Structure formats: structure tokens, C-alpha cells
């Protein structure tokens, strides 16, 4: 049985990652870059990269094809564009990037460190009204919130 870290390591053999500063540079050089946020809608609404497209990880494969209720036309048309996939920590984005490559996307990247690292680099995030989110608010939002009962049991 594989663990999540093993699955991610396997997928990373064919997924390109970019650091937050690389993403910033790519977006400045190419205004046609599509930032695809694969977090859930409530996460996205709280804060996201300005002008990004939200398609939750659970529907990304059907959203990039015509003929489904989840179809996102901008994503379907993005097969030749640079697409940077983001999530909270960089895990969901790796899995989404891997699958988009299988589905014919040519220039796909996963944001290493996720939006946590993007925020640590103090790059701008906006709320659902596209208003800037203060860095202090973002810092609180991205704090790791693993609860005690979510940790592996220890022998006592």
C-alpha cells in the first residue's frame, strides 16, 4: 500500500513545479497564464490569486472537457496555454497537474509550497470581491490546523 507521500513522489516524476517567485515572474511575462485554483469553493472565496479560475480538485477532469455539467470553457480552451495549478499546500495541485497532462494539457505547472508559500513570499491575495487580503489575515488562514485526533496514534 502506498502512502500519500509515495503517490505524490511518483506523480512528481512527470509534473513540473514552480516556486512562488517563479509564478510571479511567469505571470508578469505572460498575461495569458491561467492560474487554476483547485481548492474547494469556500477556500477560494476566502482568498485567492487575483483573476484565477476556481475548479475544485474533485471535478477538474470533467471541467476540462466539453459536454459535462462541470465544464469550464476557459479551462477546456487552455490546453496550449501555460497553466499554473495552485492549492493550499501543493499536494492537490500535483495530482491535478498530473491528470491534466494525461488529458492533453501541454504546459502545466504545480505551485510548490501552495498558496501557503505564496503568502509567505508576501504575494498578493484577494477575497471573493477581489479586494486585497491583509497579510496578517492570510497568515492566520494558512496556519496548519491539524487536530490531535488527526495524527497517527502513538504506542503508549
Return the CATH architecture. 3-Layer(aba) Sandwich
Could you state the CATH homologous superfamily?
Rhodanese-like domain
Compute the number of helices: 8
Residue windows where pLDDT falls under 50 for at least 5 positions: none
How would you spell out the order of helices and strands? HEHEHEHHEHEHH
Q: Sheet with the most strands?
A: 5 strands, parallel
Number of domains: 1
Radius of gyration from CA coordinates: 16 Å
The rough form would be described as globular
Q: Give the spatial strand order of the biggest sheet.
A: 1-5-4-2-3
Give the termini separation.
Answer: 25 Å
**CATH overall fold name:** Oxidized Rhodanese, domain 1
Beta-strand content estimate: 5-15%
Secondary-structure content class = alpha/beta
Give the C-level CATH assignment: Alpha Beta
- Total strands: 5
